[in-house]
Specification:
By secondary structure, the protein is an alpha/beta fold. It has one domain: Vaccinia Virus protein VP39 (Rossmann fold, 3-Layer(aba) Sandwich), CATH 3.40.50. The protein is built from eleven helices and seven strands. Strand 4, helix 7 and strand 5 form a beta-alpha-beta unit. Helix 2 crosses helix 3 and helix 2 packs across helix 4.
Amino acid sequence: MDGVNKTLYIPLYGKAYVSKKDIILKDVTAEEIWEKEGFPLKGKAKSKWLAYSMGMRSAVFDGWLKMYMEQYPEAEVLHIGCGMDSRIYRVGAGKHQWYDVDFPEVIEERKRYYEEGENYHMIASDARNPMLLQDVPKGGQAIILLEGISMYLTPEELNGLFKTLAGHFEMAYLLMDCYTVMAAKASKYKNPINEVGVTTVYGVDDGNVPAENTGFTMIKEWDMTPESLVNQLKGSERMIFRKVFGGKFAKKLYRMYEYQK
């Protein structure tokens, strides 16, 4: 795998870490995969603080997804940039058609641990490919997750992805996390992803911009470190995390936006 694809090990480790501690997110599959595949992360990539952040981010995405799956029982679920994530197990597809999407080499690795079924499908494709959704029924409703992927797309590529998605579905809700421009610039020198060879990323300062002229509209900003999750940390860890990773400074670096079409 190249550097960008190797970044999937960072959230995988984070989810396995918090799951073992029985806080924030229960993800037995992440624990099992990490145990077998444990990529040799080092430095900040293996920080407990980053692990807590990765666990919380995924927990927020899970809660958001469950909410819309209940509201729209016939909507298709798209997780673009799925990596080795086991959301399909944590949330469950139910009667929804669920599509996990990532680069071919990632999907090849993923198929060692996941099997397609009547309601679950894997798509091997670059998110920048206009033909990304050729195997997904056109029209209808969709619930779309862009978790940990926007920062690897140029502004033009991200806007193009929004256009591809908007053109394919009649109605859609989309949740995306992103770096700010300041964070993207700083990432060249100080970011856990540097540990796997990634130094070029992109940021979004105005959540409206990725959706411009696409059919999507930004409708809400979400908190990636809600108090209900931060409170699961103990003692000084809770205090430090709240101040450093869940405070105003953190918001200058990392945001989460919801869109509707």
